[in-house]
Hints:
Blueprint (H helix, E strand, L loop, with lengths): L2 H4 L8 E5 L21 E5 L1 H11 L5 H14 L3 H9 L2 H15 L4 H23 L11 H12 L5 H17 L1 H10 L2 H8 L4 H17 L2 H13 L2 H10 L7 H15 L3 H4 L8 H15 L12 H14 L19 H13 L1 H12 L9 H15 L23 H20 L6 H17 L5 H9 L3 H14 L6 H28 L1 E5 L8 E7 L5 E7 L14 E4 L3 E6 L4 H4 L8 H6 E6 L3 E6 L3 H14 L7 H18 L30
Subcellular location: Cytoplasm; Membrane
Protein name: Engulfment and cell motility 1
Keywords: Apoptosis, Cytoplasm, Membrane, Phagocytosis, Phosphoprotein, SH3-binding
Amino acid sequence: MLPFLRWSLANHECFALQHADSSNFYITEKNRNEIKNGTILRLTTSPAQNAQQLHERIQSSSMDAKLEALKDLASLSRDVTFAQEFINLDGICLLTQMVESGTERYQKLQKIMKPCFGDMLSFTLTAFVELMDHGIVSWDTFSVAFIKKIASFVNKSAMDISILQRSLAILESMVLNSHDLYQKVAQEITIGQLIPHLQGTDQEIQTYTIAVINALFLKAPDERRQEMANILAQKQLRSIILTHVIRAQRAINNEMAHQLYVLQVLTFNLLEDRMMTKMDPQDQAQRDIIFELRRIAFDAESEPNNSSGSMEKRKSMYTRDYKKLGFINHVNPAMDFTQTPPGMLALDNMLYFAKHHQDAYIRIVLENSSREDKHECPFGRSSIELTKMLCEILKVGELPSETCNDFHPMFFTHDRSFEEFFCICIQLLNKTWKEMRATSEDFNKVMQVVKEQVMRALTTKPSSLDQFKSKLQNLSYTEILKIRQSERMNQEDFQSRPILELKEKIQPEILELIKQQRLNRLVEGTCFRKLNCRRRQDKFWYCRLSPNHKVLHYGDLEESPQGEVPHDSLQDKLPVADIKAVVTGKDCPHMKEKGALKQNKEVLELAFSILYDSNCQLNFIAPDKHEYCIWTDGLNALLGKDMMSELTRNDLDTLLSMEIKLRLLDLENIQIPDAPPPIPKEPSNYDFVYDCN
């Protein structure tokens, strides 16, 4: 029973308990068990009563009273209990009407009361955003007039920062949550009107602006995306982002990094159509591209329509030249581009390289055509496989991750960044081929080395394509061999029988060590983030294992913790004995629910759930793959199951190798036989006499 029922208050339904901290959240039957020890509560008017009063106050004729009411509404709307009551009074409709008509109503007062007017509109939009974030009301219910009004705030050159920020957030949510609203917003907002907001100095405004562009890009029909990309290129969006965001004299925060990553992914996904398009061997326009590659490489005087020479001679000459170009099918190279991926994208890359880096292209083709057959690097085959590999590295065609911040600044330094990326890598491939003295049988080995070179260079996050090229210069085949040798020495796999027996003997001891490390990490705990439709409003929760390994403690946090989280701040408990199972990926209940997250491969790989009691679960999305492995290993260890993660395998290999090397230090340069030495025969007698003098 709630306390005020025992206090015999009249009209007790008009009262409620509320957190006395800055959250001001109401206590309900649903959340009363979440109250932490020592939490200060206050007795206040009920959510329904408060909602009714605010509903009336925001319609006051007094500007000061109205402003104060809207300020309170913006604060209280974060609480879902209050939000539900206010929405039941048709509060959302009232706010939209105030936005649509209120601005004209107070237009005359702007000159003399501009700060008051700006604050009033800011609080109105803040309350609207908070109320809509609860997902109670559908976005499809809003009028064109409201959309136009919100768009007008974005389109104005001089607008209060807080109003602009909330207007951009509303437009982003409209686009992401409703197809109909996407079309209406797209009619009201142009890229040209958004660009000026990127040229300012406020990173939060820049972040919201890129978020709106990403939302419009993501929801655009397939046929509209390329058109939109052309507009972005015309407006020089890339160079503006490079100058005012990436190279600005300030650190890029996580949300900005995420939005840049999303824009990078959506831009590269424009290549998917060409990547999945097979070449039509009968299409003359496509065949002409292959003719052009041949013409540039060999500067042929006789063109296909030249009447000089017999048809047979021309066919023979073309076949010879196509072989020099490195195509698999010398007679009809169009057949090389019928596999998807990479489809026509490979041919596009080859033509771009031939036209924009003509000297390098001719050098590579002629250089290889003059080598012995067994040592020539096939340009055509290499280009096709390289294009496919680069698409895999950049995950062309995959949806952006909800959690990834992995953008590469160098891709924002050129309008044709993927093509330039290819041009650098095809020259690297030719260089590596020569360094390896490779033959056609070594083709796959060369591709593996090139992939390793590219991946290692990308991990350094070069700021420009020239810097990327420089990184690759330092990653020659010789350097890759040194790195591999070093890694092999650190993870040497001894295969002799005595070593294998030694491994088998000490492996349980190493596994126990890994298990204790995992459990210790669970005792330290981890901060997990709750994902919602609007990623910027991050909510956090923390989970840790008790020191005696018997209970999991967890609870919500206001913000990401900077230090150790006190035990008494985590009020929820789950006894380890009640855990029935740990499930991962698609088997998790929160991954089976409808929503964008279940379509995302990276989020699926970080998801796990604890199942307990009857149909109860505790759902997790790990911050990264390392924490995912730590927690799934630790939970399996608590349940007496094997630790099966990739991290455990790597740790086991590393620790086993180190332990064996330590034990074999005294046997350095001594050959260990595969079989133990034979036991000598017994002596004929045991009448041994030792003279100790």
